Target: Protein-L-isoaspartate O-methyltransferase
Amino acid sequence: MSGFSTARQKMVDGQVRTNDVTDRRILDAMLTVPREVFVPASRQALAYLDLDLDVSEGGAKRFLIKPALTGKLLQAAEIGEGDNVLVVGCATGYLAALTAKLAGQVTATECDSALAAKAKDTLAALGLANVDCKAAACPEGDPAAAPYDVIVLNGAAEVTPEGLLGQLKEGGRLVGVSAESKPPRAMIVTHFHAEFGHRALFDASAPVLPGLERTAAFVF
Model:
């Protein structure tokens, strides 16, 4: 494991801190959660590289988003220790594991049921008892555990995720990458008095989550 722990330290020092992630709780979580256990064995050598890592095994491609973007989105979300958080499109569960270190309760959804099962097993093996992983389409979220203080997208949306915004608590916030226009940007959407305020944070790109793609316009 020493090679992975060295790689983990290098990821945090070389990719995450250098992108202005200063929240000690997030840095500690990224130093302790073993990213390699969320990656298929054949690709574990890539676990700590600065890339969106394909963790799918057949089926639709599913990704762990870049470490730096992961850290920046978590920092923007300002997750409190008692917060109820939804992680959407969690793939194998890495972002859900980090979030579980920061929040009170985490619900994670993944549209690929085989990956959702794998995420559930991996999170349990790490002893993270405050996270519940479910198979569900990305746009649906999980109304049963709503409302949420924070919703984090493990990827990008080309459309406004109305169904997810409806699961935010008053004062709650959703963070993710908006690819509705170019260039794509990390966004935070806040819910106050039945209104939703959208604020761009920084330019960022990430794979689009299944179900949150722009529908192709019909062209003659």
